[in-house]
Amino acid sequence: GFNLVGYGCTTCIGNSGPLTQSIEDAIRSRNLVTAAVLSGNRNFEGRVHALTKANYLMSPPLVVAYALAGSMLVDLTNDPIGTDENGNPTYLRDVWPSNEEIQNAIKESISPNMFHNRYDKASEGDQRWKMIKAPSGKTYAWPKSTYVHRPPYFADMTEKPSPVHEIRDARILCLLGDSVTTDHISPAGAIPVDGPAGKYLKGLGVAPKEFNSFGARRGNHEVMVRGTFANVRLQNEIAPGTEGGWTRIMPSGTEASIYEASVEYAKNSTPLVIFAGKEYG
After folding, report:
1. Does the pLDDT of residue 1 top 70, yes or no?
2. Of 105, 121, 159, 202, whose CB count within 10 A is highest?
């Protein structure tokens, strides 16, 4: 059978778990374009899993149907999705529920009281929640944590914003095409071990198995700045032939991670710009 596993962000950015190693190896070695089917709302490459370059959004019953068929090459209107216990072909039309069956299942399984009972005291929490010890005070006591850091961006902020300056002698950090998503700009998935963020965490003594994800470490600006444009599927035309968060430092043309390049440019107070196509962000 099939169970509902799409709670919260389960189907996003690999949170549903890794692929079998042999499958991952085959995808990488043969540079395969693999597909995912899901009833979520994200269909750009690498979102469901870093190695899925194509994703199809569909209703939950169709997700089940394609899972049974095991291929996106199947024509569900004409081809069988499997066989029955006698070896006879089974088609989608044979197992597709009628509206009456669906409504009967809803009536038998769901009632308004279920939601009322669940949400009436949702903010109170259970006994375990109430027993959690938490610090109190007028201001937040910043912990020595690799998850939450006090950001420096408001330290020298004045009541009046600084005047807008002209951008002169800037360098291009990224030259991007169309449909660069928020996940390309600030990925929320796994933290690559050998990327700038991974190296930073390893330097703090965090084991790779404890990296968690960019999404889980959004409260640490040191991790997030190192993860900006670090999506493994980013195509930056400043560094042709690469995939991921790479660029070139000009005028030398030295290849570097986008984070490392930005730090190098900052040493000389060099302004940076990003060129992108349609649907940026």
Report:
1. no
2. 202
